[in-house]
Amino acid sequence: MDLRNFHYLLNFNLYAAAAAAAAAAAAAAAAAAAAAAAAAAAAAAEKGRKEKVRNPHSGEAGGHAGVQQQQLLLQQQQQRQQQQQQRQQKQQQQQQQQQQMQQRQRREQQQQHQQQQQPLQQHQQQQRQTQQQQQQQQQQQQQQQQQQQQQQEYGTCL
């Protein structure tokens, strides 16, 4: 693995970890908001109940206001949850895009590596061919020398 690829993977892992931490923080914030909304709704209901106990004749109005406030708080909570889900979906899409980009870069790096290896392989093949040619030339020279020696020996015999 070359250094550029290592740095890219490191940066991608850091980005994924940061995105996961952001998603966890957003989920915790949504949970805290839901708890606050539930506490506010409970407080509104308690306030309506106390108002009804103190003033039984106007209890309907107080109770109705408490119900409206509960509904409003629940709507706000649902909106926050929807926004949280949208943020998480967006983060997931970004992570998928990042992974696709990483895969594309890996393929490109593999292709570049293969292209870089090709000249090296050609060079090695040329070296082997050159060595074979040199060996053949040496064998031919040895054969010529042997023939010359034989001719000299036969020439002296005649």
UniProtKB/TrEMBL annotation:
Compositionally biased region (Low complexity): 68-103, 111-129
Protein origin, superkingdom: Eukaryota
Protein name: Uncharacterized protein
Region (Disordered): 38-129
Organism: Eimeria brunetti
